[in-house]
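TICKET: design request
STATUS: open
ATTACHED STRUCTURE:
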C-alpha cells in the first residue's frame, strides 16, 4: 500500500455488553508481550469463549517476482501464526500454528512458496479444527487450496495436501460455517475474473461438486462473508495488486445466490480506497447482535513485513452496511 504508517481501529468487546472503539493512528497492534502481531490476511475462529486469530507470518526482505505483468511483491512464506484473546484487545501469542519448511522446493509449505489468507472452522461432528489457505507458487499459476487439521484450535496443524475445487483455480479465499453446520469455501477463480462459492464435505476436508459462480467477469478478490437477519453479506475488493481500491458488497437470500451487488460499504474520506486497506475477514462480535468488525490489511508493498492492520466496527441497519473510519 502507499501508506507506510500503521493504522489501527479496534472495536473492543467489554464484558460482552458494550463495544468501545479505540482509535490509534500510527500505533502497532501488539500482543501481551509487547511484540507486533504478525497475522496478515487474517481470519478469526471463536471457540470456547475465546477468539483465535490466524494470519500469514511475513518476515524478511521483500522482493519482486520477475516476468510478471503486475507488481508481484513477495516475502518468504513464514507459515501461519495464532493468537488468542478473550476481549479482542489483549492478544496472547500462541506460536506458529502451521510451520513452513525451508529449502524444499517441492514442498507446498516451503518458504519459497505462497501461503496466504488462512481460515479455520471447527467441525462438531469430527471434533477437528480444519484450516484452509491459498497455496501457490510465486507466479500464482498453481492456485490451489491448502488444507490442514488439528485437535486443538492453536495447533499444531498437520498438512493434508492441496486441491483445486472442481478443477478450478483458487486464490484469495475465506471459509464460512452456516447456521445449519454446513461449511463453504468462497474464493477468486478463473484468473480472478469470477468468484466461486463451494459447499464443503461434511468433515470440511474436501470440496463438493455443488458450487456456484458469482460476480462473473467482475474481477473481485479478498472475500469476507457474514450472515445477518437471515441474509448473506459478502464484501470484496477489486484486483489491483498491492494497491488500494474501492470495496464493494453484495447481498443474497441464499448463499449460493443469486447475489445482488449494492456498492461500496465504506463512507467518508478515502472510502474509494477502502481507507487504504484491503479486507480479509468480517468478525461477528459475540453477544452483540448486528455488531461486526471489518478486518483489513494496510499493505506496504515495498516492505511487506511492515504492513499494518485496519479493524473497523460497523453495524447493519435496514439491510445496509456502512463502514466509517
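STATUS: resolved
RESOLUTION: sequence designed for all positions
ATTACHED SEQUENCE:
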Amino acid at each position: 500500500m502507499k501508506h507506510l504508517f500503521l493504522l489501527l481501529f479496534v472495536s473492543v468487546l467489554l464484558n460482552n455488553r458494550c463495544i468501545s472503539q479505540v482509535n490509534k493512528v500510527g500505533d502497532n497492534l501488539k500482543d501481551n508481550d509487547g511484540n507486533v502481531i504478525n497475522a496478515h490476511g487474517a481470519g478469526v475462529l471463536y471457540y470456547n469463549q475465546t477468539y483465535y486469530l490466524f494470519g500469514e507470518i511475513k518476515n524478511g526482505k521483500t522482493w519482486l517476482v520477475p516476468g510478471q505483468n503486475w507488481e508481484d511483491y513477495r516475502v518468504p512464506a513464514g507459515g501461519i501464526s495464532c493468537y488468542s484473546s478473550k476481549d479482542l484487545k489483549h492478544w496472547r501469542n500462541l506460536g506458529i500454528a502451521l510451520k513452513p519448511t525451508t529449502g524444499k522446493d517441492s514442498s507446498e509449505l516451503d518458504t519459497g512458496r505462497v501461503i496466504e489468507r488462512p481460515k479455520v472452522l471447527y467441525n462438531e461432528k469430527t471434533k477437528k479444527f480444519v484450516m484452509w489457505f491459498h497455496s501457490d507458487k510465486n507466479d500464482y499459476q498453481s492456485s490451489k487450496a491448502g488444507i490442514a487439521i488439528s485437535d486443538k484450535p492453536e495447533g499444531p496443524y498437520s498438512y493434508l495436501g492441496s486441491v483445486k475445487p472442481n478443477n478450478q483455480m483458487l486464490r484469495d479465499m475465506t471459509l464460512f460455517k452456516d447456521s445449519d453446520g454446513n461449511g463453504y469455501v468462497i474464493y477468486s477463480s478463473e484468473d480472478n475474473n469470477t468468484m466461486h462459492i463451494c459447499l464443503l464435505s461434511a468433515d470440511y476436508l474436501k470440496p463438493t461438486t455443488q458450487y456456484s459462480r458469482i460476480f462473473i467477469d467482475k474481477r473481485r478478490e479478498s472475500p469476507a462473508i457474514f450472515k445477518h437477519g437471515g441474509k448473506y453479506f459478502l464484501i470484496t475488493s477489486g484486483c489491483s495488486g498491492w494497491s488500494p481500491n474501492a470495496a464493494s458488497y453484495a447481498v443474497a437470500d441464499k448463499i449460493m445466490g443469486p447475489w445482488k451487488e449494492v456498492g461500496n460499504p465504506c463512507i467518508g474520506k478515502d472510502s474509494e480506497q477502502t481507507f487504504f486497506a484491503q479486507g480479509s475477514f468480517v468478525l461477528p462480535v459475540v453477544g452483540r447482535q448486528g455488531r461486526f468488525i471489518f478486518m483489513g490489511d494496510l499493505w506496504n508493498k515495498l516492505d511487506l513485513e511492515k504492513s499494518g492492520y485496519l479493524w473497523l466496527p460497523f453495524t447493519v441497519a435496514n439491510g445496509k452496511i456502512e463502514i466509517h473510519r
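CLOSING REMARK: The two ends are 17 Å apart (CA to CA). The CA atoms of residues 41 and 117 lie 4 Å apart.
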